[in-house]
Amino acid sequence: MDTTYDPALAGEGADDGQPLLYPRIDCRDVSVFYSGKQAVFDVSLPVFDRSVTALIGPSGCGKSTFLRCLNRMNDTIDGAKVTGEIFMDGENINSSHIDPVLLRSRVGMVFQKPNPFPKSIYDNIAYGPRIHGLVDDRQELDAIVEKSLRRAGLWEEVKDRLGQPGTSLSGGQQQRLCIARAIAVRPEVILMDEPCSSLDPIATARIEELIDELRKRYCIVIVTHSMQQAARVSQRTAFFHLGHLVEMGDTDQIFTSPRERRTEDYITGRFG
Ligand SMILES: Nc1ncnc2c1ncn2[C@@H]1O[C@H](COP(=O)(O)OP(=O)(O)OP(=O)(O)O)[C@@H](O)[C@H]1O
Q1: Tell me, which fold does domain 23-268 have in CATH?
Q2: Number of other CB atoms surrounding residue 1 within 10 Å
Q3: Nearest atom within ligand 1 for CA of residue 67
Q4: pTM for the whole structure
Q5: Which neighbouring-strand residues pair with 37?
Q6: Does ipTM come in above 0.95?
Q7: Mutation pick for ligand 1 pocket among 35, 37, 61, 191 (CB with most ligand atoms within 8 Å)
Q8: Rounded CA separation 206/232 (Å)
Q9: Cβ atoms of 243 and 41 closer than 8 Å
Q10: Beta-carbon neighbour count of residue 167 at 10 Å?
């Protein structure tokens, strides 16, 4: 499928029966500094809707730092400064009138290590919809909890133990719980920072299947150390090196015929 970025198509549906593919997020000249030291350099890239974008590159190249720009998580880091523009549905998310807490409900995040709240399975999911005022009564809340757990592929495993602590689940189940928690507040975008790095191969395969299912509804951006994972789950791949975006393209193209020598060297294991 051709996903070449065309600003003229932004916000328009495809007319060929293919999934809607337009930039949900458009990053322009994004740089990040930690206490004045630059970690990300002038990165411009589109992030398409209803698809998975993988950020790959050697350790320390700025993948996680860049990911955190997309929901302003760098705001929470002392000394971090972000410049450039990030448009989401045409609005610059760094504008002073954007409420970062609301933004983070639209742009959910799943971390490396599953981090369920010290609450029941039910309350892990119910917490977000409650504080964001998304529900009027218990019935509606029950429905959101069930729907989110179903979408995260966890419902059948936990429906009879919703009152038990989220931390009583296995690592893979906890990660699916965290994904369900992100989904519960009806995000448009889901950011995942190495979501499988603490999981065994079976739990990893389960999360990868889930990501593939979720991409039909959401815009997903994933940081991964695993090139195999990027190749399996993503449709677009961005390769970072030393804080620079070296190359971005359709995942097939990046892995079979990269344009840049540095990308080729990385994916063929010559460095990294
Ligand atoms: N909170 C921070 N304070 C200061 N420097 C930071 C901070 N977080 C990251 N950095 C620096 O920014 C650069 C990019 O780090 P980042 O974690 O984004 O890279 P990464 O590609 O995600 O690495 P990894 O794959 O190892 O997780 C590194 O030089 C790192 O040391």
Answers
A1: Rossmann fold (3.40.50)
A2: 11
A3: 18
A4: 0.90
A5: 34
A6: yes
A7: 61
A8: 13
A9: yes
A10: 15
